Amino acid sequence: MQMQCSNQEEDAYWLLERYVELLISAKMFTMVPFYASKLPSETAERIAVDFMYEIEDEKIRVDVLAAAHAVGVDTTILCKKIFAHAVELNQRNESDSKLISAWNWLRYPGKESLIDALFGANLILRRFFGVEKLKEAKLVFEQFEDNLGDVVEKLWSIECADVPLPKELAEAVAENHAYQAYLEALDDFNSWFERFKMPKPEMPQPPPKNVWSRMDIQQRAAFEVEQAKASELSERHYSTTDVLREASCGSFRKRAKELHEIRQSYLGAVIGMLITIYDQSRDSNGAIRLVNLMADEKYEIAEALSPDQLRSFLRQLSVASDGLNK
Questions:
Q1: Domain boundaries, the chain
Q2: pLDDT tens figures, 49-76
Q3: pLDDT tens column, 214-239
Q4: What InterPro entries does the record point to (predicted)?
Q5: What is the torsion angle, in degrees rounded to the nearest 10, for the CA atoms of residue 302, residue 305, residue 307 and residue 308?
Q6: Which of 8, 91, 162, 246 is surrounded by the fewest CB atoms within 10 Å?
Q7: What is the enclosing helix (H) or strand (E) of 121?
């Protein structure tokens, strides 16, 4: 009799699971959490993770999460499991866009999952930076209006006012900032290079004294404004922004070999960009600042670079300095 009841229960679960699959195929997503909750917990979780991973529409995602919450599901844990599922699939060559899309599930529960969102973003960025998928890395930052690291720091200061940021979390914030600084530095370098390739703006020549003496106040003021604009354009032609200069200071903690290699590549690229800028713009002060920066133990730049990189950069800086001093 007991075996018969067990078989009946299994049959009921089988039928219910088929019904849930029918709801999913009919795109009646908000009904799925209720009926899935009647299944054994492992089966219900597998169904929820699999079908919610495929949802792309943000409104539908939010509605389904609300339906799951209504039947007692811990939606924060569920969102973390959806993202973990995406990470696993991405390792099997699932598309990067799906991984980024799945990361957004970590945003929906609110402040309860912001820290998980930060660690998740860093995991994706570490993976993208490791294989130089910088366009994809930019897409990660585009998912969040504000800087995620700053948001986490602010939230911690509000929720745990008397407790300092834990070391692991502080390092995650710094890592996230460093990725963003590099991408911004790369954009700045590309903008500078585009300006550098253009002809240098010419300064308007002052009119002869006899012409100047006949010009009224408005004409003289207009000429001075034009001259000031040309001077600013001329300075911008060779200059770069502080983001690029400061990017070389970004420091990753070497928690793992993978992160160390990323930092080595990241710093090498930024230093290479800076050397190019200082050499082409004949900025001797900039070159000297870079040498001092590389020697500063505070930033551990020399330690992060390989011996070959360090020798190459010092040789380039030496050549650049010789050229600037001639």
A1: 9-94
A2: 999 999 999 999 999 999 999 999 999 9
A3: 777 777 677 677 777 766 655 554 55
A4: Nup84/Nup107
A5: -130
A6: 162
A7: helix 114-130
